[in-house]
Specification:
Number of strands: 22
Shape: globular
Oligomer: single chain
CATH topology of the domain at 71-227 and 489-652: FAD/NAD(P)-binding domain
Number of helices: 24
Bound molecules: flavin-adenine dinucleotide, NADPH dihydro-nicotinamide-adenine-dinucleotide phosphate
CATH class of the domain at 71-227 and 489-652: Alpha Beta
Helix content: 25-40%
Low-confidence stretches: none
């Protein structure tokens, strides 16, 4: 009720009434989109039953001739560190291992990636208009160490990819990567005290792929969070007669142009459809709009789009203000995080000063150091969620008002308004997307939450109407990072087996997330991973990856200092249970997600259903993060480092 909405039982104010209206609208919109099939409504491109769709997952970018000419990685060799994933996460692991001296040189490290080069996300994604959404000064890793000044506030995909190559070159890792290599399984060998990773190395269309085994003293997983493209199982999708591709593998043979070109000449005179309206589409639409004869944007749920304010870097500002002192980049990342976690004090300097810093209610999914633990009682949770809605009100209203003020056709504007709290989907920022709907060749096809119902040879079908298309762009996102209840093995898409053949996925299924600090699990010695749960996730993924890689390298360094090179380090069952219980106490903070429209953040609604069974409830709660956000995670880790004894870890010398 309106009385409840204000949380104090007094007479409702206009704001209380608006909040009530909004929460009712949000609930209606979420209900409209809930589906029985949840995650099963999608299929991983790579595993599609259709050969045509499966082929869309292939790597369009690899330079096979150059890669085939590289010295082959020998089958059966032992490496001190194998890192799965050569994106920014894998590179950060490698750089920290080198900096700490636990890797004596690049030869101690082998990075393995299905891609044909470094960069991960920024290798695969090359769609026109791609840029990072967190400002590059905070997002691009190791700017201080590489001395690199980003060209602009939000770097292009090409610049982000080049930066991955720059990092690899600076730390002499170029030859320490096995590319086009799909890891298919990993198994701990207790007798040999090492990991064996099965890998299939592709050699290009003309080459014969090669199966090899890599052995590793330590296995580090950096497989990313949104890496594996998926598509909805829309009947008839593969029968579409025209060219069709996923944004994660843009087909420039069809569109012409380039990542940075304003116009894609191959689309001239064409009717182009783009399916999906997430963060990718927001960046792609302006480029398609200026190139296609007609552009149809198929929408199930609109994104909330705030202002961007993109600009070139001013070298003077860079030198004197942004990069003016050692440690500036971490300070800037944490400053951004303060605003996002609703922890900025009155008068706090706002270094980044962009749209991200105007949404303190984003703290609903990343936590906040300004609040204590939320007790998991229905009234405490309701009051907490009501506070979050209130905190979010000004921002969501401003985003809807912005939509109305930009989009000239009132009907289109109404359909482009987002009716869910800020934290339910990745917030978007653009000074071009909404404006594109004022162009005569751009058409919004809103499906009122139902999604596209079918595809034919000619186009897509919505509400019984067929929209004829020449080209179809699938901007339908990725397998959720919460796949397999957030198991690190599920994110790699491979089986990982520890002591006594225990499967990591099975462990997660059985007991839920089980780690110390989100980075290692009992029964899986010398295995470390980039965290998803039981840690903290910043909006800036690089902050999470930096902090986690520092922690992992600390653990290995201390273990080796105590027990020698190749020491076996394993979290105890007692320590991980204690950490899981601590995490479960924080779970109620994240209850605001229960009211979200389905999407990848909520595993299409599956991840946030309220289990009735006590055991399932506990399993879900253990998968949460620290409600105090990144600041509290860093504090926990710093105390752990200062204590110095690797508490909760068993360390034994290598035999
Ligand atoms: P990734 O970059 O995803 O790299 C993981 C690598 O692991 C991949 O190359 C993959 O091929 C490899 N891999 C995984 N499993 C296997 C296997 N079994 N065998 C072999 N190789 C494997 N985050 C932000 O904070 N800000 C942004 O602006 C931002 N923009 C994004 C834009 C797009 C289009 C996407 C998709 C994501 C974006 N993200 C953003 C999230 C982004 O993924 C992270 O910021 C970051 O790049 C993750 O780095 P990573 O190295 O952990 O993972
Ligand atoms: P998303 O998962 O965000 O978007 C997929 C889109 O496909 C959604 O709009 C979804 O609708 C829609 N969809 C799915 N099934 C159907 C259907 N049957 N009919 C119609 N529409 C359908 O993927 P993105 O690639 O856009 O983004 C993934 C993440 O990657 C982002 O959240 C962000 O974290 C990151 N990213 C960041 C960028 C940046 O700015 N740097 C750019 C791109 C991505 P619905 O919304 O209803 O689920």
């Amino acid at each position: 009720s309106a009385e409840e909405a204000n949380g104090n039982g007094s007479a409702p104010t206009p704001e209380d009434r608006r909040l009530l209206e909004l929460s009712q609208r949000y609930a209606e919109e979420a209900d409209k989109r809930r589906r029985e099939d949840g995650l099963a409504q999608f299929e991983r491109l790579q595993e599609s039953g259709s050969a045509r769709l499966r082929a869309l997952a292939q790597d369009p970018w690899a330079d096979h001739a150059a890669l085939n000419a590289r010295r082959a990685v020998p089958d059966g060799a032992t490496h001190k560190f194998v890192i799965l994933g050569a994106g920014y996460g894998g590179l950060l692991f490698a750089v920290r291992l080198l900096a700490a001296g636990v890797a004596r040189g690049p030869d101690d490290i082998l990075l393995v990636d299905a891609a044909g080069g470094f960069g991960g996300t920024w290798y695969w994604n090359r769609y026109p208009g791609l840029r990072c959404d967190i400002e590059s000064y905070s997002y691009m890793p190791l700017l201080e160490e590489t001395g690199y000044m980003p060209a602009s506030k939000y770097a292009t995909g090409a610049e982000l990819r080049a930066h991955a190559d720059r990092i690899a070159a600076r730390w002499r890792l170029q030859d320490r990567a096995l590319f086009r290599a799909n890891a298919t399984a990993a198994r701990w060998d207790d007798a040999a005290q090492r990991w064996t990773v099965d890998v299939t190395e592709g050699r290009g269309p003309e080459g014969q792929s090669r199966a090899l085994k890599l052995h590793a003293r330590y296995l580090l997983l950096a497989p990313g969070i949104i890496t594996s493209p998926h598509v909805p199982r829309i009947p008839g999708l593969a029968s579409f007669a025209g060219p069709l591709f996923h944004t994660a593998r843009w087909d420039y043979a069809v569109t012409g142009g380039s990542e940075t070109a304003a116009v894609l000449p191959g689309l001239e005179g064409k009717r182009v459809g783009v399916l999906g309206t997430g963060a990718t589409t927001i960046q792609v639409v302006p480029r398609l709009a200026s190139s296609a004869k007609e552009l149809y944007v198929f929408q199930r749920t609109p994104s909330a789009v705030s202002w961007r304010g993109h600009r070139a870097t001013d070298p003077e500002e860079w030198r004197t203000k942004i990069a003016s002192k050692p440690g500036w980049q971490r300070e800037r990342m944490l400053n951004l995080d303060l605003f996002l976690t609703n922890a900025a004090k009155e008068g706090q300097e706002n270094m980044v000063a962009d749209g991200w810093t105007e949404m303190p209610a984003y703290s609903a999914i990343i936590g906040s150091p300004s609040h204590g633990i939320i007790e998991p009682t229905p009234d405490k949770i309701a009051a907490h969620v009501a506070r979050l809605y209130k905190l979010d009100l000004a921002h969501t209203e401003a985003v809807r008002a912005r939509t109305e003020s930009i989009v000239q056709n009132p009907e289109t504007a109404a359909k482009l308004k987002a009716w869910y709290p800020t934290w339910c989907k990745r917030p978007c920022f653009s000074d071009e997307y909404l404006q594109a709907f004022n162009l005569p060749n751009v058409h919004l096809v809103d499906t009122d939450g139902r999604g596209v119902e079918a595809a034919t040879e000619r186009g897509l079908v919505v509400a019984g109407q067929e929209y004829p298309l020449d080209v179809l762009v699938l901007s339908t996102g990725y397998v959720t990072p919460r796949i397999g209840d957030g198991s690190p093995a599920a994110r790699t898409g491979i089986g990982i087996h520890g002591r006594h053949g225990t499967s990591l996925d099975d462990k997660w299924q059985r007991q839920g997330a089980s780690t110390l600090h989100g980075v290692c699990s009992h029964g899986f010695p010398n295995l470390f991973f980039a965290p998803m749960g039981q840690s903290s996730q910043a909006a800036n993924n690089i902050l999470t990856l930096e902090v986690a890689s520092e922690h992992v390298v600390h653990c290995i360094r201390v273990a080796e200092a105590r027990a020698g090179a190749g020491a076996v380090v394993e979290v105890t069952s007692a320590a991980e249970e204690a950490w899981a219980l601590e995490i479960a106490k924080h779970a109620a903070w994240f209850a605001g997600v229960a009211g979200c429209t389905p999407g990848y953040i909520t595993s299409e609604g599956e991840g946030w259903t309220q289990p009735t069974d006590q055991r399932e409830m506990m399993k879900q709660a253990r998968g949460a993060n620290l409600s105090g956000g990144m600041e509290s995670y860093i504090k926990v880790l710093q105390e752990y480092w200062a204590e110095g004894s690797l508490k909760g870890m068993d360390v034994t010398p290598a035999t």
